[in-house]
């Protein structure tokens, strides 16, 4: 009986692993977000998104909005707690979304209190950033850096 169960589990496991259902591949495709990190320098703090340049050279399409809790996933069933008195969301459109985005945060900082990927589905990836009420969101800008386009959200401490 043990032999029959293992013969069944091995093909199922291999199928799930190869299909990406269990483990998503790291983001390496053109148009994917390859990394998200935060940094602090002087009076400012930053959330930096690395977006791999697309083959046609198009700029990443993103939109920043003021956001407020409750924060939910795409289905609306799971709620996320994101620290901070104020919040901004950033939604990237037309990105490769079926991969694992490495997130490297050092939190909480003076201004930035929380960062969370809310959802990724059908070419859209959305993040929320929580920051303290006394701090100020200044701008979002982007620039080229080798094979990636950096999209930077800037906050005053």
Q: Which strand order does the major sheet show?
A: 7-1-2-11-10
How many distinct beta strands?
11
Count of the domains: 1
Q: Give the fraction of residues assigned to helices.
A: 10-25%
Question: For the terminal residues, how far apart are their CA atoms?
Answer: 63 Å
Question: What order do the helices and strands follow?
Answer: HEEEEEEEEEEE
Q: What is the strand content? A: over 45%
Pairing-aware structural class of the strands and helices?
mainly beta
Mean pLDDT: 87
- What radius of gyration results from the CA coordinates? 18 Å
Biggest sheet details = 5 strands, mixed
User: Briefly, what CATH class?
Assistant: Mainly Beta
**So what's the overall shape?**
globular
Fill in the CATH topology: Immunoglobulin-like
Low-confidence stretches: 15-21
CATH architecture: Sandwich
Give the tags.
5-stranded mixed β-sheet; 4-stranded antiparallel β-sheet; 48% strand; 1 helix; mainly beta; single chain; 157 residues; Immunoglobulin-like
3D architecture notes:
Helix content is 11%, strand content 48%. It is globular. It has 157 residues and is mainly β. The protein is built from 1 helix and 11 strands, in the order H-E-E-E-E-E-E-E-E-E-E-E. A hairpin with a 2-residue loop joins strand 1 and strand 2. The chain has one domain: Immunoglobulin-like (Sandwich), CATH 2.60.40.3500.
Brief description of this entry?
This protein is mainly β and 157 residues long.
Write the layout of secondary structure elements.
Blueprint lengths: L1 H18 L13 E9 L2 E9 L8 E7 L3 E2 L6 E2 L5 E8 L9 E2 L7 E10 L2 E8 L4 E10 L2 E9 L1
Parallel strand pairs: 1-7
Antiparallel strand pairs: 1-2, 2-11, 3-6, 4-5, 6-9, 8-9, 10-11
């Amino acid at each position: 009986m043990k032999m029959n169960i293992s013969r069944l589990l091995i093909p199922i496991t291999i199928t799930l692993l190869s299909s990406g259902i269990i483990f998503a591949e790291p983001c390496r495709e053109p148009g994917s977000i390859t990394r998200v990190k935060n940094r602090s320098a002087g009076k400012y703090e930053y959330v930096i998104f690395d977006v791999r340049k697309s083959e046609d050279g198009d700029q990443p399409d993103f939109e920043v909005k003021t956001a407020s809790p409750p924060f939910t996933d795409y289905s609306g069933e799971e709620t996320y707690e994101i620290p901070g008195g104020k919040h901004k969301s950033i939604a990237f459109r037309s990105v490769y979304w079926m991969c694992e985005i490495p997130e490297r945060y050092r939190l909480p900082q003076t201004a930035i209190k929380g960062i969370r990927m809310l959802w990724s589905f059908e070419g859209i990836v959305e993040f929320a950033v929580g920051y303290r009420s006394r701090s100020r969101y200044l701008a979002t800008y982007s620039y080229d850096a080798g094979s990636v386009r950096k999209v930077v959200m800037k906050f005053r401490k």
